[in-house]
Amino acid sequence: MATLRTDRWWLQPVVTASILTAFVVYSTWAAFQNANYYVGAAAHRDLISPFYSPCLAGDCVPGAGHGFAISAWTLSPALIILIFPLGFRLTCYYYRRSYYRAFWWSPPACSVADAHGSYSGESRFPLFFQNAHRYFWYFGLVLNVILTYDAIRAFHQPGIGWGVTVGTIVLTVNAALLWGYSLGCHAGRHICGGSVKSFHQSPLRYKIWKFLTPFNVKHMNFAWTSLIFVAFTDIYVRLVASGAITDYRLF
Amino acid sequence: MSQVTMRVWRGDANGGDFQEFALERQEGEVVLDVIHRIQATEAPDLACRWNCKAGKCGSCAAEINGKPRLMCMTRMDQLPEGPVTVTPMRTFPIIRDLVTDVSFNFAMAERVPALLPPPMPEDGYRMYQEDVERGQEFRKCIECFMCQDVCHVIRDHEENKQHYAGPRFFIRYAELEMHPLDTNDRRDYVREEMGLGYCNITKCCTEVCPEHIKITDNAIIPMKERVVDAHYDPVAWLGRKIRRRTKRTASEASVQPQP
Questions:
Q1: Which of residues 175-204 of A touch B (CB under 8 A)?
Q2: Radius of gyration for the alpha carbons in chain A, expressed in angstroms and rounded
Q3: Domain map (residue ranges) of chain B
Q4: Does B254 have pLDDT greater than 60?
Q5: For residues A190-214, average pLDDT
Q6: So what's the ipTM on this one?
Q7: Class for domain B3-100, per CATH?
């Protein structure tokens, strides 16, 4: 790589590529498992993996459904819904920055030469589809509502009553981080208030814009923590559902 | 005092090479001080631009150890051990040594469609504090052009200079588009003529900005989203059709000539 930089500029793209690759490999594996994604009444719990919620397939395990199912769908239910969080993150302005650097080397780091001979950026097919980000944001908000509902529901353990387990905390933190990530979305910030010409003439949208801006400033932090934690949540539910660990009740 | 080796690029448009200078370190110096010491002692013909020595004029922008920085704001004691490399900004044509021809930026500045306010009301124009603050961030720009220098769209692809304004001017476009008294619509223009879609938001411009302007988050991405409103969002398009906006749409608007 042509550069006069003497610092370890390569470290950030290497770390980014490693984490994103690990996540893609794990989530692909998890999505095709079609098992151990729900801990139900038999274990006195109501924990569902975020990769499988809402469970829309016809053969969801009992208790995992959300009242609506596509009976013709017999593949893993994760494959129905994961396209939305995947699209949301793939078109996210922060992740674009990261993967253009880490995978496409365009450029790998600031002041390090672009690895490509010609360049048209996001001005042509297929990359102008990145402009669909706002639609994935809308779907992301719907999923956040569902995952929040799942987290609240988990506090009521079948046969026992209301209580707090490690699993309820994991699901709650997961939902909170995903809200933090979604509220910091650049497209959402624009739609909610940034698009106006005059803040003074749109006081409510200005207040919403001001509320969202601190989340936007921390968008990178929420992007990474929510990504890692959503995988952790799936791992936790998977281990409990398979019987490898016990979901301890705290009180 | 210990020694420091400065590797300074010397040459002109026909080519050049690094010249090394060994100097004694002096406490509290910035890179520009050392360049001036080289001028005063070993190379009186070394060319460099400078003016305020306070990080407010942007004249002494160069690349130090490969990264765009203001020489007057880069302390020698904060650089890592080893030779310090000083080169001119790579994106612009060399005039001599550390001095580059930044006229590309002034040509792009001329192409920015000007503010177009509505007719003056009887009691004059009125602008409120929240709207003033929004544009104020962009007016902190000192035009050092380091964001232009680091942007790989033109740094590594010379051919894009014909149709790419660059981050410095995207903040100008954003400032005008967010101006409550502006009636001009530049969304078509910034997409088709100024290459907003070429930016792949790798944020290097934000990283090097000495004024810490959030160029990408507060200017380029909001501009991209405004272009989405005008060109890529079918719901927004439908909304405009239904509301039959009296305001000029992006496709109807014409770019106003410079005064």
A1: 186-187, 190-191, 194-195, 197-201
A2: 21
A3: 3-100, 103-243
A4: no
A5: 96
A6: 0.94
A7: alpha beta
